[in-house]
């Protein structure tokens, strides 16, 4: 093994550092300048510095807080549902998948479809006038709910997101579940533990790192959701399904308020960083307490 001193490590790390500074550092610096400026598509090269006015405008915008509440609620609910369903499927389908491993392939099919295409597909399927689901509900029961109106659009989006991404949680949980040594289960069964006790007292604690990791990943992905929501409902009736990325998109492209949009994206980045740091700290604290 080659023993490199500090100077040698600097030489080897310099290309990576230069790459990050060029492709990440420069855009971040430009974004920070634009977030402090009054800028539009007509004065991109000569922005007018206005200080923290864009941040004040964003924080004083009621629609920003509605979008934040939508993204937070959507991320938490979808992450919980996907983890619960994925864990249940991983546990109950484990014997079947172990014998017939090819079954995992069709279970992963929803992950192969782009979220934007999922949104377009459900937009046609659930359309109030031409969709087959409302048609057959009306034919069989004499009535059909409007899945995409202001009252039901949020929960429709939650169901669509959960159906697509539950296989992701299933895959991770199944891998973690099968990694538990069978000797542990057999020893617990010999001691008289029931299947429920083995699951709650042994298997779930051993799967805790995977559970936490999967929840974080799915929450982050749900919190920054854009494509399937935008193609299915857009900003929704009265802005009821406006997520933070959609809010930033509309401010940037539809309103031409580039400074405001970038200020909102900086706030989103800082909030995500603080939340991720807090969750990482809690995870390390939990591991320390467990050890």
Automatic annotation (TrEMBL):
TM ranges: 12-34, 74-93, 105-125, 153-177, 198-220, 261-282
GO cellular component term, pick one: plasma membrane
Entry-linked InterPro entries: MetI-like, MetI-like_sf
Coiled-coil region: none
ABC transmembrane type-1 domain span: 68-279
Biological process annotations from GO: transmembrane transport
Transmembrane helix keyword on record: yes
Annotated membrane topology: Multi-pass membrane protein
Gene3D superfamilies according to UniProt: MetI-like
Keyword GTP-binding appears in the UniProt entry: no
Cellular compartment(s): Cell membrane
Alphabetic keyword roster: Cell membrane, Membrane, Sugar transport, Transmembrane, Transmembrane helix, Transport
Entry's family note: Belongs to the binding-protein-dependent transport system permease family.
UniProt-listed PANTHER family: BLR7065 PROTEIN, SPERMIDINE_PUTRESCINE TRANSPORT SYSTEM PERMEASE PROTEIN
Protein name (Swiss-Prot/TrEMBL): Multiple sugar transport system permease protein
